[in-house]
Amino acid sequence: MKQYLAFDLGASSSRAVLGTLKGDVMRLDEIHRFITPILEQGDHLFWDLGVLWNELQTGLQNALAVAPGLRSLSVDSWGVDYVPLDAEGEPLRAPYCYRDPRTDGMMERAFKTVPAQEIYAHTGIQFLSFNTLYQVLADAAGAPDLLQQTRHHLPIADYFNYRFSGHFVVEVSMASTTQLMDVHTQQWAKPLMHAFGLDPTPWPAIVPSGTRLGPVQQAPSVMTVATCSHDTGSAVAATPATQPPGTWAYISCGTWSLLGVERQAPLLNEEARTAGFTHEAGVDGTLRFLKNLTGLWTLQECTREWREQGASVDWETLEDEAHASTSIQAVINLEDSRFLARGGMEDRLRAYCREQGQPEPQTRGQLVRLILESIAASYRRALQHLEDLTGQRIETVHLFGGGSQNRLLCQLTADACQTTVVAGPVEATALGNLLIQARTMGDLPDGLTIREVAARSSQLQTYKPSDQSA
């Protein structure tokens, strides 16, 4: 048996998962879980690097206690956010959270320097107000002295891989989320950076998925591997797809949902740009042609608010209440920017219904069902766009991540999209992270791919469109 450690950092919660490869099956054991710490300072939101690093140290010690022969470790996380480092490799400040409002209006200002069409032609990345490009431009406008002191920019996961290995690199899947990487060469888009007056020097070399970085400084017998630093990249790598290429799509459902297909070449036409599709790098040179959608964020926020108000609620209870409730025949556009910020989520959802002249949910169960139906409706719209753009007919959707545990959401997705939905694995990101580590270390059984081992390591549930789908 060979063992590996995946740190999967999520925007809401994070975990350390020990993977044990026995034959052609990877067994996952969660050995540490913690809430991802956010610092609220004035009107700004930051990630607490110190607390995160301490939690990672706890996870490593827990792993070594039960797996003294640990082969390797790797960190994955959400994209776009980054840590500015000085010449000694120390953070100049805590990294901003992508939900911080400092980038409001920055994207529109950027278009006056470089038109959106030209940015998309270079990067192929969807326009989101919190993309790294606009965060760096916000630094240039609001903290130019800090930007001048910065010697290294490292995205969150790559920063922690640096802390383990001592090596400054940015893994390609993470680099692609910045809107600063050239989609054609998969290197930094230096002409674009220069057009914005940005110095490309602080951005370290981009390395392929599955790169050995060096021994863990705290445990030299363990290798640090850059798997897919971007969590979606790791998750898609573990899609247990057996269908022919071009007939299946994926939905990674957590705080965010990402719906897309794998491609070998970018699709950079005007229709793709205006529809909001993005190109993110994946393992083995693939491109993830996908759309970022709001996932369980609004429900997570409502749940947090209910708990703060004293309600004792869990996900299973909320799903049962939603299942027992009748649909109020309303749909909320969860991509509306009003739902991006923290706080007051239930009130904003209800206000949206009133503004749109739609029925307002009367019970908590109806509100939860409305959110789930609205998520499924967003999947339907994105899938229709995807099929129109690619000319492909999607027959199967692989829905993985935390949302795959919600049976009602899976069935609503099958109904809305009129496709077979294969749910699982729940821990797709950790599984992909671990399997890329195993392959990098030369441990996968001969002749087996990551996806084949992922399928043999997962419990999957299939959902068909119901008779009520119309």
Query: Which CATH first-tier class of the largest domain would you pick?
Result: Alpha Beta
Beginning-to-end CA distance, first to last residue: 49 Å
Task: Count the E strands.
Answer: 19
Largest sheet: 7 strands, mixed
Overall outline: globular
Number of domains: 3
Low-confidence stretches: none
The radius of gyration computed from the alpha-carbon positions, rounded to a whole number of angstroms, is: 21 Å
What's the CATH H-level homologous superfamily of the largest domain? ATPase, nucleotide binding domain
Helix share, percent: 25-40%
Q: Which structural class fits the helix and strand makeup?
A: alpha/beta
- Biggest sheet, strands in spatial order? 15-16-14-13-17-18-19
Please give the count of helices.
17
Looking at the structure, the CATH topology of the largest domain is: Nucleotidyltransferase, domain 5
CATH architecture of the largest domain: 2-Layer Sandwich
